[in-house]
Design goal:
alpha+beta; ten-stranded antiparallel β-sheet; 16 strands; elongated
């Protein structure tokens, strides 16, 4: 048998089992909207329109943060920012204007970069006679946003706050906004005491993460950005927003004694956060302020805060809570020094205390029996003495305040001091 003939026969039989059908011609392009490469050199008007519309909507968005504005009002912050502002929108206005220009410049420079990259690619293909690749004449929104724009931003640190993505025919622009304003003072009411915080100034920072989606093929032609009518109205949202003071560092008075805010940890001293994910917009406030006696006069006082303790102000619910440290003797002072200094005051010349001068002198004698508490008593006296309004050298001792502060400082040991406290809180 001739094996060569058999193989040939089998081959012919197999070939006859198949029929090649003519292929139906198909449109060889993406169904998604595209940007014509030739248009990349002439999109300055479109990019300006995109920037204007995105940031006009962002400005309008900041007008809706009423809950943030309310908290700023509660702290009297907006009235105390240098140059004066009335709302969070006013705080970020300059930064928004800067960011708008930055986005416009970014898109313009990126389009020049993309056109150059594509032209280089097409030139290389044309130079290769046997190349199987086709020249690029159109770019999908996916490639424009996640490839070309991404590569351009990565190569230009000045645009690091912007990232890009896409959904259908919409360009998604995300950017971080940071504004820093100097405030010269702050007012907080805690534990019934008003703390007017002043100093050389401190920085108030607004940080926001904004996301905007903007249509680029509004006429549904399949070609994006071929005219300004392709650009729709953007949808803008805040992914996150907070107003904070990293380190307050201001000075205040507590019972007429100077105190200074200190930075003990990395958490912000004050932070107002917008809760964007809740159905009803709200803002949360975190306050973590710690004060020591001002270094300028701490060594000259007969008392001190117990080592490791500080006066603290924190936010609990809707109120500010005041936590008073344990007040102890400054060992460099003696009880006799303190009592003697108070006895030198001419009590009978104090208008409010003329009729109680002798009783007060007896009360000062009682201090020698309060060895364990005299530091607390001395600070309470300091908080209860005030200057007489309209008088140059006249002071008054407010007995009710003295009694109140003694009660706060002594706390659950009040019974132990009961008889002595009675001697001190005359005229209540």
């Amino acid at each position: 048998m001739n094996t060569k003939k058999i193989k040939k026969s089998v081959k012919q039989s197999t070939k006859n089992n198949y029929r090649i059908e003519a292929l139906e011609p198909r449109l060889m392009m993406s169904a998604d909207p595209v940007i014509d490469v030739d248009d990349l050199s002439n999109l300055s008007t479109q990019f300006e329109t995109i920037s204007d519309r995105v940031f006009d909507e962002t400005t309008s968005l900041f007008n809706t943060f009423c809950v943030i504005d309310a908290e700023l009002d509660n702290l009297n912050i907006v009235d105390r920012v240098n140059n004066g502002v009335n709302s969070i929108k006013d705080l970020v206005e300059d930064s928004l204007a800067t960011a708008k220009g930055t986005l416009q410049n970014l898109l313009g420079e990126a389009s020049t970069y993309i056109k150059g990259e594509v032209d280089n690619f097409n030139d290389n293909i044309a130079a290769q006679a046997e190349s199987t690749q086709s020249a690029i004449t159109q770019i999908s929104l996916k490639d424009f946003a996640t490839k070309y724009l991404k590569d351009f931003v990565n190569a230009h640190p000045e645009y690091k706050d912007f990232t890009f993505n896409y959904t259908d025919s919409k360009l998604v622009v995300e950017y971080d906004l940071e504004t820093v304003k100097e405030i010269g003072s702050l007012e907080i009411i805690a534990g019934g005491e008003t703390f007017n915080l002043t100093g050389d100034g401190t920085n108030l920072a607004v940080n926001a993460s904004i996301s905007a989606e903007i249509e680029l093929d509004a006429d549904v032609s399949g070609t994006m950005l071929d005219n300004v009518n392709d650009i729709g109205s953007p949808t803008v949202a805040a992914k996150s927003l907070d107003v904070s003071i990293a380190n307050l560092g201001l000075n205040a008075e507590f019972l007429r004694f100077g105190i200074t805010e200190v930075d003990n940890d990395s958490t912000p001293d004050l932070k107002i956060s917008y809760n964007a994910e809740q159905e009803t917009p709200s803002a949360s406030v975190d306050v973590d302020l710690e004060f020591s006696l001002s270094p300028a006069n701490a060594d000259s006082l007969p008392f001190m805060f117990k080592e490791g303790e500080m006066l603290k102000i924190s936010k609990v619910g809707t109120d500010f809570e005041l936590k008073i440290p344990d007040i102890v003797k400054n060992e460099s002072f003696t009880l006799a020094d303190f009592a003697g200094s108070l006895k030198n005051i001419e009590l009978d010349k104090l208008p409010f205390l003329k009729s109680h001068a002798s009783e007060l002198k007896n009360a000062l004698d009682k201090i020698t029996e309060l060895e364990n508490y005299w530091a607390k008593v001395s600070m309470a006296f300091g908080g209860a003495v005030e200057k007489v309004e309209g008088e140059t050298d006249a002071f008054q001792l407010k007995i009710n305040q003295l009694a109140s502060w003694l009660g706060k400082f002594v706390g659950d040991k009040a019974d132990e001091m009961k008889e002595n406290v009675k001697s001190l809180i005359i005229g209540v």
